[in-house]
Amino acid sequence: MTPDAPRRRGRPSRRTADGTPAARDRILAAAREEFSARGYDRTPIRRIAQAAGVDPALVHHYFGTKDEIFAAAVDLSLELPAKALPALLADGPDGVGERVARLFLGFWEDPATRGPVLAVVRSALTHEAARDIMRRFVLRNLLEHVAAQVPVPGPTLRAELAASQLIGVAMLRYVLELEPLASADVETVIATVAPTLQRYLTDPDAVPAAGA
Predict the structure, then answer these.
(1) Residues 66, 111, 170, 207: is their CA dihedral positive or negative?
(2) What domains appear along the chain, each with residue ranges and CATH number?
(3) Torsion angle, alpha carbons of 159, 163, 165, 171, to 10
(4) Is residue 3 reached through a cis peptide bond, with omega within 30 degrees of 0 on the bond before it?
(5) Origin, by domain of life (predicted)?
(6) Contacts of 54 by beta carbon, 8 Å cutoff, 6+ apart
(7) pTM above 0.90?
(8) How far apart are the C-alpha atoms of 91 and 191, rounded to whole Å?
(9) Coil, strand or helix: which one is 31?
């Protein structure tokens, strides 16, 4: 009889580490929920483990540090669709404010991405990794990309001003849930915010050249 192959040591199988399938996926889902509800500082590893129904050691086993599980839980969920950026300026700068507002608010309105963006915004004031993710998502990957392609002065400042508008709306509507903004129809919000974004991003007189 052929002897059994030796058992490989090292990192346990994803399917068997806690005796049930997809423990790693449960940990990630629990981390997204906990970080979105409480932010980085108020979410200990043991709380994530409890929500996922695993031992805290398993969380460390799969993800290492709290910083690493935070990044894993939120970062990949905030990748912009491959076709989203070219579509923003496909018809020129006219209407780009509305398209940017629709794309950004779409992440908040979509249940699949609402948790990760809540986690980032709740954590950004106190946690550097969250600030990095927010800068990359809102500024570098979205608004700076748009501003750089519109031939007007001060593209970086324009992108930051547009970001302040979007993040302010998101904070009041989705994080603080202030009424009546929290319950307003999203199309009403988009239509109201879009002209300000349009001005920041495309109006040659909105930002002086010295702001570049």
Answers:
(1) positive
(2) 23-74 (1.10.10.60), 77-211 (1.10.357.10)
(3) 180
(4) no
(5) Bacteria
(6) 18, 23, 26, 27
(7) no
(8) 18
(9) helix
Per-residue pLDDT of the chain (212 residues; tens, 9 = 90+): 444 444 333 444 444 345 455 888 889 888 888 887 788 888 889 999 999 889 898 888 888 888 888 877 776 556 665 567 778 888 888 899 999 999 889 888 988 778 777 877 777 777 787 788 777 777 877 888 888 888 888 888 998 999 999 989 998 999 889 999 999 999 999 999 999 999 999 998 887 765 44
Burial of 37 by CB count in 10 Å (0-12 exposed, 13-18 middle, 19+ buried)? middle
The total of other beta-carbon atoms located within 10 Å of residue 171's CB is: 14
Structure tokens at 203: 């109006």
The helix/strand/coil state of 125 is coil
Whether residue 133 contacts residue 67, with contact meaning beta carbons closer than 8 Å, is answered with no
The length of the chain is 212
Other C-beta atoms lying within 10 Å of the C-beta of residue 161: 20
